[in-house]
Amino acid sequence: MASWTTANIPDQSRRVAVVTGANGGLGLEVARELARKGGHVVMAARDQAKVEAARASILSEIPDASLESQPLDLASLASVREAAARILADHPRIDILVNNAGLMAIPERRTEDGFEMQLGVNHLGHFALTAQLLPALLQSDGARVVSVTSTGRHAGRPIDPDNPSLSGHYDPWRAYGQSKLANVHFALELDRRFREADVPARSIVVHPGFSSTDLQARSVRETGGGRSQRFFHAVVRRFGMTPAQGALPLLRAATDPDAAGGALYTPRWVNWGPPVRRPMFRRTRNRDAMASLWGFSERETGLTFDVKPP
Ligand SMILES: NC(=O)c1ccc[n+]([C@@H]2O[C@H](COP(=O)([O-])OP(=O)(O)OC[C@H]3O[C@@H](n4cnc5c(N)ncnc54)[C@H](OP(=O)(O)O)[C@@H]3O)[C@@H](O)[C@H]2O)c1
């Protein structure tokens, strides 16, 4: 069968998409391709100068692209709440939510609310955003929520609710792995809830593969040139896919009419190649870990998911 490419993206006119971290890397490419197909894209991002440059880059190629930017700092539940309120005020219906933004292997740090930074940004901020955008997602006749994991999930352990921040034994890669395993458990549990409520929304998880973005460079900068971070940076610069290639699994999950809820999409050869559906290891489908993560996330964010038909 021919490889899935951006040519396979169906028309997106009249569809509304929210993409986190849309000011660079994979998020920018996802925003670009959804806009090219006529979708309205809400670029939810932290650094506003960077988002304006990202927007200009899309408009220079697609002058009639329908774009808006919304300030969003996933390291602050207050910022997530404000962003969600602004988005909901303008968009009573959202068709696509791509929870893409992320940080990798940075030193021990806390979010505004005191969460370990990678867990806070990669998982809890997206948990809170999704919970608050849920009413609009349920208005769509087939909403997609896309979560972005990594091969780092294989090194991650399910969150220990008694020590989610890994205090006393923090390790940048362990924290990344934990947050990326949480992305999988979140996506699968959300899809289970969608199916239980018999709503047409689908939650899908993707691994983008090894793509040369700012992810690795930032982890080098933030660790002051950490050794393993430098290694990955050098490898991705030399062998990584382009951001446009890395964005394909996200785009497939967001738009392929046949993409199944609860599925995992990755590059064909783990970190390289066109996006395909892949089976998941039993460990990543652990129901107890999903239930535990869900309860923990609800307690920490003070938010619940009310999944029911509109
Ligand atoms: N590239 C790869 O090889 C690879 C492999 C596996 C998984 N991934 C995953 O792919 C996703 C996208 O990463 P990327 O490769 O595109 O990296 P990137 O170029 O570094 O982009 C990351 C994005 O996340 C945003 N972000 C970081 N902290 C944020 C915060 N507190 N609030 C809001 N936005 C925040 C960044 O915005 P600012 O610049 O404004 O901070 C940026 O837009 C991540 O979830 C990553 O874990 C990437």
Task: Please tell me about this protein's structure.
By secondary structure, the protein is of the alpha/beta class. It contains ten helices and eight strands. Helix 2 links the parallel strand 2 and strand 3 (66-71). Helix 4 runs parallel beside helix 5 (172-196). The longest helix is centred in the middle third of the chain and has 25 residues, at 172-196. The N and C termini lie far apart (38 Å).
Bound molecules: NADP nicotinamide-adenine-dinucleotide phosphate
Q: Give the structural class.
A: alpha/beta
Proportion of residues in helical segments: 40-55%
Provide a count of the helices. 10
Question: Which sheet architecture does the biggest sheet show?
Answer: 8 strands, mixed
As a percent range, the share of strand residues is: 5-15%
Apparent shape: globular
Task: Give the radius of gyration.
Answer: 18 Å
Q: Low-confidence spans: pLDDT under 50, at least 5 residues?
A: none
Walk across the major sheet and give the strand order: 3-2-1-4-5-6-7-8
> Alpha-carbon distance between the termini?
38 Å
Query: What's the total number of strands?
Result: 8
Q: Taking all residues together, what is the mean pLDDT? A: 96
